[in-house]
Amino acid sequence: RAGKLNAVVVHEGQRVSKGASIAQLDTALLEAQLTFAKEGLAAESALLNELVAGARPYETEKARAAVNEREAELSEIMSRHARVTKLVGRGAVTPSEFDEVEQKQSAAQARVTSAKQVLAELEAGTREERLARQAAIVAQQEARVTELLIEIDKSTLLAPYNAIVSSRSLNEGS
């Protein structure tokens, strides 16, 4: 990899062993990218864990209570509808009053259906497709972290074989 030379740790005439560090390239940008990638990995992993865990018990209980509340409202409206239906036959209720009760009953039924759907979604948990997508995002973040660690590792220049440094043509900052 190319980059600014931060340190040359050998001198002319010095013996070096194969694999010994001889120079270090600047890694400041890579280190910043690594920090960013690790933070992204932590955030995406946390989201995956949240999706795997599913709804909290209190969320499910709250949804169940909403279903019960909506069903109670519907029951009350249905009773009123039955009373109004009897009164319509006797002419004691206007058609517009009857229509209003019909409308309220339909709306209450829709609220019950909606509340039951919310509860069912919470009880079913996260969709497999969503989990797979999030797991793939986590894997991508892990790969990016690994890639940056490899690039940082490559920033240390190593002696390719046992030798004596005959000349040093580069200095720090090159």
Overview of this protein structure:
This protein has 174 residues and is mainly alpha-helical. The protein is built from four helices and five strands; from the N terminus they run E-E-E-H-H-H-H-E-E. The protein has a three-stranded antiparallel β-sheet with strand order 1-3-4, with no helix packed on it. Helix 2 runs antiparallel to helix 3 (95-124). It is rod-shaped. The mean pLDDT is 93.
What is the compact description of this entry?
With 174 residues, this protein is mostly helical.
- Strand content of the residues, in percent? 5-15%
State the end-to-end CA separation.
Answer: 14 Å
Widest sheet, order of strands:
1-3-4
General shape: rod-shaped
Which residues form runs of ≥5 with pLDDT under 50? none
Helix content: 55-70%
User: Pairing-aware structural class of the strands and helices?
Assistant: mainly alpha
- What oligomeric state do the depicted chains represent? single chain
Mean pLDDT: 93
The arrangement of helices and strands along the chain is EEEHHHHEE
Task: Itemize the secondary structure elements and their pairings.
Layout (H helix, E strand, L loop, with lengths): L4 E4 L6 E2 L4 E5 L2 H26 L3 H34 L4 H30 L3 H26 L2 E3 L4 E2 L10
Helix pairs in contact: 1-4, 2-3
Q: Which key phrases capture this entry?
A:
single chain, mainly alpha, 3-stranded antiparallel beta sheet, two-stranded antiparallel sheet, rod-shaped
